[in-house]
Amino acid sequence: MADHPPAPRHVLLNREAADRFVQTARVAVPNEACGLVVGWWDDDVLTVERFVATRNRAAGPDEDGGSGQFEIDPQMHLQLQRMLRGSGRSIVGCAHSHLSGPAEPSAVDRANAGEPRFLWLIVSLGDKDLKAWWHESEGRFSPLAIRWMHASDKADALSDGVPASADAAGSDETGGAA
Ligand SMILES: [Zn+2]
């Protein structure tokens, strides 16, 4: 991965990607859903353009509310990486769901966290909450603020940091995404 700051200032999230992730999580019940997120860095802002659902190799009921397991299929990870070559985008993080636990890394998540300097999106279906976390390394996470890519998504709450032209920055291949 190219040079980028140690941690993003915030995450610029495409509403469509977030919706797709939450929808995938709902469909996966009673298992946790997981997937990869695709995006790019702009200085110290990490933009998430797309959520790509992957098979959960550790699928099983989330019996203790949030410490269920997920394991992204490494084959799908490699495949996606290959597909993105030369596109100006890369796999910048992962996403998974908690059925009832909070939208934060569980003890199991921390113990199993792999790739350092990786974005984690976690949705809690029970809490109806979506949060972004930065995995520094070895199970150490810090919370990240989420902003929406298109000003119209959350114009009232997030009008400060989201330029009106945000969607022109990188959606050359996704025309009509808004
Ligand atoms: Zn988890």
Automatic annotation (TrEMBL):
Entry keyword set: Hydrolase, Metal-binding, Metalloprotease, Protease, Proteasome, Zinc
Ranges where the JAB1/MPN/MOV34 metalloenzyme domain occurs: 10-151
GO CC entries: proteasome complex
Alphabetized GO MF terms: metalloexopeptidase activity; zinc ion binding
SMART domains according to UniProt: JAB_MPN
Keyword Metal-binding attached: yes
Chain intervals for the UniProt region annotation (Disordered): 158-178
Domain of life: Bacteria
GO biological process, one term: proteolysis
Alphabetical list of SUPFAM superfamilies matching this protein: JAB1/MPN domain (SSF102712)
Protein name: Proteasome lid subunit RPN8/RPN11
